[in-house]
Amino acid sequence: MLQGKFIKENIEILRLLESGGTANVYEAYDHWAQKKVAVKALYKSVYKDKFIRDKFKQEANIYLKLTHPNIVKLKDFISSSDTDFLVMEYVEGLTLSNYIMTVSGPLADEQISSIFIQIMFGFAHAHHNGIFHLDIKPSNIMIDSKGIVKILDFGISTLKDSKNNNGRLLGTPLYMSPEQVQKKETNRLSDIYSLGVTLFYAATANLPFDNISISELFNKIIEEKLPRIENYYPYANPQIQNIIDKATMKNPDSRYQTCEEFAYEIQNKL
After folding, report:
1. Which pLDDT score, from 0 to 100, does residue 168 have?
2. Among 89, 113, 142, which residue terminates a domain?
3. pTM attached to this predicted model
4. What is the spatial distance between Cα 195 and Cα 192, in angstroms, rounded to a whole number?
5. Percent of the chain topping pLDDT 90
6. Is 135 considered catalytic here?
7. Is-contact 51 184, C-beta < 8 A?
8. Number of domains in the chain
9. Terminus-to-terminus CA distance in the chain, angstroms?
10. Whether the Cβ atoms of residue 112 and residue 139 lie closer than 8 Å to each other
């Protein structure tokens, strides 16, 4: 582990925050800037995998294309002999998943409107820059102490006109779009589907199609509508159901076509 070590003369690792599929995320301190930063460190065990290493470098390049108040900022990219590090803006707050689990439960309409409009603006910025996230979920969305949303983890994102992850199935199954689980072409409309599933979770504090096998899950994603939110939270606004249904249509052309359109629906119906 890296606690107490310097990965650069000014960047000291303080503690582990979380572990992911290919990297650890640490709280660290930048002694030059005199502020906390977050450091994403690629596992040494996967460093020799050229695909994963290239995706990690691509993530750094993606952040350089994104300048938006609702997207976490890249501070530095550090390469060593056996691993790479992303030095990121540190966000004091909770992930949307932790916020729902420990603070709010199902979000009220006003909370959904405030949080999701910020989310949509952040992803609209990414999409306008030809970047598709492809791993949208509540744990990749932070809410800071002032209520500002920060989008995290563009680790498996793709750029417009680039190859879609070399045919690898990457992402979080419960939030994947039908085209994603079928390894078809993905784009901004795939993100919009995942945002619809994220809205389902925000409105109910539950996941659709949970506690089943991966094969069953993928079949349901491809063939079935999401369950009705009233089955999970009877006080949910029926307008939210209509918005979720539109966002998660099986045919991508039937979904909201932009995050701005999605945001407009939320702003005007909640």
Report:
1. 62
2. 89
3. 0.92
4. 5
5. 76
6. yes
7. no
8. 2
9. 46
10. no
